[in-house]
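Cont'd.
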Amino acid sequence: MVLTAVLDYVGVATFAMGSTVRARDRRLDLVSAALLGTVAGIGGGTLRDLALDRPVFWLQAPGYLYVCVGAATLMWFVGAGPRRRQTLLFLDALGISAFAVVGALIARDEGVVAPVAVVMGILTATCGGILRDVLAGERAVLVRKDVYVSVAMLSALVFVVAVELGLPQVPAAIAGAAVGTVLRVLAITRRWQLPPPPRT
Amino acid sequence: MVLTAVLDYVGVATFAMGSTVRARDRRLDLVSAALLGTVAGIGGGTLRDLALDRPVFWLQAPGYLYVCVGAATLMWFVGAGPRRRQTLLFLDALGISAFAVVGALIARDEGVVAPVAVVMGILTATCGGILRDVLAGERAVLVRKDVYVSVAMLSALVFVVAVELGLPQVPAAIAGAAVGTVLRVLAITRRWQLPPPPRT
Amino acid sequence: MVLTAVLDYVGVATFAMGSTVRARDRRLDLVSAALLGTVAGIGGGTLRDLALDRPVFWLQAPGYLYVCVGAATLMWFVGAGPRRRQTLLFLDALGISAFAVVGALIARDEGVVAPVAVVMGILTATCGGILRDVLAGERAVLVRKDVYVSVAMLSALVFVVAVELGLPQVPAAIAGAAVGTVLRVLAITRRWQLPPPPRT
């Protein structure tokens, strides 16, 4: 499916570049930066494929590896000023949402029930970044207070519900990715946070 | 087998609830708490299934996901005072032991030799909590000084040895879970620790 | 293939022992030390096998587990003075290079293209140590400044290129392992580091 391939490559490249900007801020060398970028780019999809017991996607399509290493290397050399960081943040919003939709779509194709497809969307979208943070020894995204996992959940949910309601996959995927991207951008610009637990 | 299903659900729910109490203490939002609870509940079994190359257990039985999310959500709203924490600590002891037995039992059914079955028991019982700690950026259970991995090892060992000696699976499973639970409770109440390495 | 089995066991034992020396320095108990040593010894190969969707190597060859637990236990009791640490550091250089070659060799046998085989070599050689560091809550090898991932990459690359050029596997494997070991030893003794990113 052309749409998912496009969404997938956008997500992979964006995650690898965003990851390299951080690695660069920490003055990491090119090899470490490229490795962390690759983990961020393909980590989530790898875990999804392992959990679904399907062939890991980049084994037969090494183009994903080249995109990760290429995007990370480029970004390592050129760096990113404030405007480029801004752009990356918005691309990242698209990346999360795209990954969530792709993950849910692939999971549905493997025949799992709808809630499991949503979980696979969340896993695809968030685990690359989580793995990258864990490997780099950074504070994992999970305990940061911004709306991130929720974006993945919403994108996957919109897609799965739309398909269950009879919408074809392409408009459902576009709807899921769009809703998630908008939510993420709003969450960033308006500094939205989820509420803390009630005091008892 | 009914017994292992019961042990399994008890373990999953307990791990998810215990994890949520901690997440709540750190003032994490509901989505993060539910995700960490789910990781704690199903993480160990997921790794076991991946290593044994069998279908990941919650793909076909999404009830495990509902239990995790439900237990975590409930606990996030109601919280836990000292008495409930006490109860959870004892349920957790049962959960570790139950997971260790279930892991070893499943591994034996897949035809591995006894020592590998014990390792699978340890992996099933400990990896959920370890993953949760790693994701949450907490000090991992491995380098804390309490008796935890040893409990999993003992439970799996008792079960495997009992079965190898000819005992049927049900009494062997009960024996393994009981011995581990007792050891863990004793270790907590008497503050048992394993000795440090000898000075040389 | 006898050569890869030898390389593999050397790598596994070395990684388990090196890991235990560190665990001992942190005064960890025997169970934690043995578990971390086992993770360091077999973690990389396990991830490689999962990614390639082949049976996890130690399931059918539990000798690897015995070597890990045995080597870790021995080292935990006897400890390591300066000279033994020196020896371990050099054995570790051989271990990284050997794992990288074995990983690339196995990946090629599974029919992946050359760049993916190199990635599998890197993954095999580095993920055991990375997992160990993450579990132990130590600063992961990725963000340390010494030449480590590069050694794995070079070993795998030399092997894959040599085989693609028509060399038989045994001399190609020896060449890859030798080049990596020499690079690592030079990097340690001369304190080589990769350069930081350019300022922009």
